[in-house]
Amino acid sequence: MGLAVWITPFFLEVSTPISKILWVGGIPLLLGLGLISTFSGTLIDFEKKKIKRYQSMLWVKAGKWEPLPGINHAELIHHTYQHRNLPNGISPTISSEITTYKCVLKLEGNELLVFDYAREKDAIRALAQIQKGLQLC
Asked: Would you say the pTM of this structure is higher than 0.70?
């Protein structure tokens, strides 16, 4: 949206001062950058045997490194389920079958650590990295 406000004066004649156009376009642009850069994840350092669950904003990862519990077993499973959107009287009710691929790590004390992936090849790649890391431990 911010880019559209910035580009408009190049195509249309406007009487609005350029400073106002920059502010009105810049605020949504900055908010959008903040939103698309916000995500969370987990980092595992097998060499130092540490794990970090983090939140990221503006690509800066904030979290605390903790000792990695022993991993007894790692496997890939898939979970298929039926998804339906809620009927609201306006949009059609759509139903689809969704498959989620999961890397499941069984930790000491019967605790599970699960990583979800939408694509099978991403889950296979992650499991291979985990198994490679387990060989380092």
From this structure: no
